[in-house]
Amino acid sequence: EPVNTEGLAYIRLPESDCWVVGMRPDDPLAQKEVITKEDLFGLPLILPERIGVQSELANWFGKDLAKLRVAFTSNLGTNAGVMAMHGIYRAKEKRRKRAAAKYWGKSRLIQKHLYPEIKSGVIMAWRRNIPYSQAVQKMIEKMQEFEASEMSKRRRS
Asked: What sign results for the dihedral spanned by CA atoms 57, 59, 64, 65?
């Protein structure tokens, strides 16, 4: 999230993602514990292409938004990660447990949390009212069972 859910059925997962900046491990910023907006002023940045995500970033940067140097926008995380390995900062990518960066290894690309922190929710979504294969239908049913189970756990605690 943020994501437009119009025309979609979805479940909201109980976890959230922390936003990060991806960079080469030999970058001077890689030595920092967290990355602030001031750290990013004047650096070549790759921003997410989605307008909702850009809006979140504009809010985070506030009046300092004009100090950014956006090299380009991308909707493909893997491509942005490759560019980050070549010295362009992959700014504001959400950190996911199974993100592509995990498979590249810390020797090629690292991620540092933003401070102050930005978190966003995670959803699993699918189009409503279309026929699905038996396998996809089973997956949707399992996701819905998971959601019901998680809601039950939250009510008990």
From this structure: positive
